[in-house]
């Protein structure tokens, strides 16, 4: 067994404990619920006259579920030492999870209906780690009293980072508010493309399932007729213009819906408040002590009209995850100068947003081109194979060839984006072309370094240095930086960490 | 940016994986290659009438790739995979074609997790995963002798217990 001899003089309190035996009644039911689909499938199969075997199958699957449920009781045990909480579980994959006690952020006690019938509860110990899959310790099936005890036992220590709120009047400072003139940036956000996708989806369903003949509609009919009478280039131009126009309108509408009445303000109690939305209003509160930095993001089109938006990097706020999506927005697409200004005000230091960046040199630039070139070449060869073997038209090949110069342009722009800097207390990194992002991360928020080196990077003497952090994207990369510079950046940002691992 | 004469670089971590890890990596890869064999076997039996040549060509390609992978990868991994835990930091080096070094300060470690999968149990090995508050930064040390892994978990847990703060 994977038992770590954590404390030598283990007293009675530190013995391995089990879940409540009443869980023997609950776990099998939960397992059966998980197996409900195979069971239903078997029963349905039985009904449709497959013979008497189906019953045995159902019994077998049900039996397996019950056995797994029983096993979960016998294979799960936990103990609480003065330093940590440990959970052992698993039969084939035996694992021991150890959580140091002073890393425990939250202890949740929940119980669903089945739990309540048997007087049980589930205790979830959260470490504040944002990784959902493996989040802390879950003890499903303690007696309610034991759960309550455990809750008290674990939170006995004063929790770090939880101070009682001072009861003084809170004052509010407005940092930014939407100006109607910013709506001109709406068309360049391309959010309307999503709307077009949805409309096309609805349209195709109408045609396929509702048997609506679009060509019977007068307007559509007339348009198609009109286009047929134009020369091909003109027709293509017209369609492109129509799509672009519609995207612009839909994007603008989306911008107004999402960001109308946008306000970013700072409360003296140490929080940032974001309010926005026309029909659905949304309020987001970010504790400043959880703020780890900001991200200035410039999608290509927005960059062309000197616009940018600002996102927060904060623990507990992950970028682009389901319901949390958009929760980290600090400024909607607006003038770049305003974005830089607001980002600087939020972190209380304008320098990281404006400081000139250290470039990554010719080898990093060359890698942008070889990568773009390799990608396009592979695609061109695939298309060529289709043309030669499957009789695809030649224009498909020439379209693919046109990717080469486009890829080169993209590579040029990507190379121009690459850069990084270290200012007093801030790590700055920039990359990207279709979306150019400038990350500004507090150096004391860096909780580790990943240095990745592919075969080609090793030959070019380049490293991708990723600063890991508890918030936002979880890791912020500095792409293709020369090896020595990567070490210099990491050493400067986190003193006394790398020294012990340096070569003589 | 000027390149100074004394180029500072990281040395590799001190400790290697257990030599049994060679067999573990080979076995793990072998499982994958056997799984890949299944559709080929199915194809052999379903397509019973046609020429056997395409089957033999695909089979030969499978054999060459599998043999190369099984011969080269474990050796290469064994040379790359290294780990080290000091009083203040954990340092790992993993990969073979693409390599990665990870460094995390002990003061930011959240959990220390040891695991033994079925294949690992076969070779009396264990892996240790050290996680920080970032989802991007778990340090996984594979192919440790079970005893070494237990000792490492105990040592790390003790060290993590000594540092304070919420590690974010």
From TrEMBL, chain A:
Alphabetical keyword list: Membrane, Transmembrane, Transmembrane helix
UniProt protein name: YdbS-like PH domain-containing protein
Entry-linked Pfam families: bPH_2 (PF03703)
Ranges annotated as spanning the membrane: 56-74, 188-207, 234-260, 369-389
Annotated source species: Dactylosporangium siamense
Keyword Cell membrane appears in the UniProt entry: no
Domain YdbS-like PH: 73-153, 427-488
């Amino acid at each position: 067994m994977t038992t770590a001899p954590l404390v030598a003089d283990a007293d009675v309190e530190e013995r391995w404990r089990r879940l409540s035996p009443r869980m023997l009644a609950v776990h099998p039911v939960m397992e059966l619920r998980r197996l409900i689909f195979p069971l239903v499938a078997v029963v349905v199969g039985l009904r449709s006259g497959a013979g008497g075997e189906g019953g045995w199958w159902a019994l077998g699957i049900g039996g397996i579920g019950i056995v797994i449920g029983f096993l979960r009781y016998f294979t799960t045990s936990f103990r609480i030492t003065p330093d940590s909480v440990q959970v052992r579980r698993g039969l084939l994959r035996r694992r021991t999870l150890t959580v140091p006690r002073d890393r425990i952020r939250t202890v949740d006690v929940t119980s669903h209906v089945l739990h309540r019938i048997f007087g049980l509860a589930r205790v979830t110990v959260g470490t504040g780690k944002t990784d959902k899959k493996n989040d802390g310790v879950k003890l499903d099936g303690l007696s309610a009293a034991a759960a309550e005890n455990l809750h008290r036992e674990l939170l006995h220590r004063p929790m770090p980072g939880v101070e009682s709120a001072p009861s003084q009047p809170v004052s509010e400072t407005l940092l930014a508010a939407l100006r109607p003139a910013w709506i001109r940036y709406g068309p360049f956000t391309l959010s309307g493309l999503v709307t077009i996708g949805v409309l096309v989806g609805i349209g195709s369903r109408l045609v396929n399932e509702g048997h609506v003949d679009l060509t019977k509609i007068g307007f559509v009919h007339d348009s198609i007729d009109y286009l047929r009478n134009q020369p091909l280039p003109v027709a293509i131009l017209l369609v492109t213009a129509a799509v672009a126009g519609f995207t612009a309108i839909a994007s603008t509408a989306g911008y107004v819906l999402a960001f109308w009445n946008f306000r970013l303000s700072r409360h003296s109690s140490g929080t940032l408040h974001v309010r926005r939305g026309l029909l659905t209003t949304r309020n987001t509160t970010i504790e400043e002590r959880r703020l780890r930095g900001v991200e200035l993001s410039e999608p290509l089109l927005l960059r062309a009209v000197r616009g940018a938006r600002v996102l927060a990097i904060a623990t507990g706020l992950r970028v682009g995850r389901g319901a949390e999506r958009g929760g980290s927005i600090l400024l909607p697409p607006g003038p770049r100068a305003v974005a830089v200004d607001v980002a600087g005000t939020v972190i209380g230091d304008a320098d990281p947003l404006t400081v000139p960046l250290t470039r990554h040199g010719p080898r990093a630039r060359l890698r942008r081109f070889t990568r773009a070139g390799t990608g396009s070449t592979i695609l061109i060869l695939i298309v060529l194979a289709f043309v030669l073997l499957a009789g695809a038209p030649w224009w498909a090949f020439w379209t693919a060839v046109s990717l080469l110069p486009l890829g080169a342009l993209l590579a040029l722009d990507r190379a121009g984006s690459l850069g990084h800097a270290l200012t007093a207390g801030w790590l700055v990194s920039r990359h990207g072309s279709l979306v150019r992002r400038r990350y500004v991360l507090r150096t004391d928020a860096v909780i580790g370094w990943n240095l990745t080196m592919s075969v080609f990077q090793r030959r070019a003497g380049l490293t991708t240095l990723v600063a890991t952090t508890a918030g936002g994207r979880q890791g912020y990369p500095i792409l293709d930086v020369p090896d020595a510079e990567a070490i210099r950046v990491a050493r400067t940002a986190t003193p006394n960490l790398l020294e012990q691992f340096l070569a003589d | 940016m000027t390149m100074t004469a004394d180029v500072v670089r990281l040395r590799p971590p001190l400790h290697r994986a257990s030599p049994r890890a060679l067999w573990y990596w080979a076995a793990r890869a072998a499982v994958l290659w056997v799984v890949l064999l299944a559709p080929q076997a199915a194809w052999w039996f379903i397509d019973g009438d046609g020429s056997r040549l395409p089957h033999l060509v695909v089979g030969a390609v499978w054999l060459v790739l599998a043999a190369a992978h099984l011969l080269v990868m474990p050796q290469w991994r064994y040379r790359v995979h290294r780990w080290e835990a000091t009083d203040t930091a954990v340092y790992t080096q993993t990969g073979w074609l693409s390599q990665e070094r990870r460094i995390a300060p002990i003061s930011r470690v959240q959990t220390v997790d040891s695991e033994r999968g079925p294949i690992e149990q076969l070779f009396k090995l264990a892996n240790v995963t050290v996680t920080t508050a970032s989802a991007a930064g778990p340090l996984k040390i594979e192919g440790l002798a079970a005893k070494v892994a237990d000792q490492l978990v105990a040592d790390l847990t003790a060290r993590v217990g000594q540092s304070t703060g919420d590690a974010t």
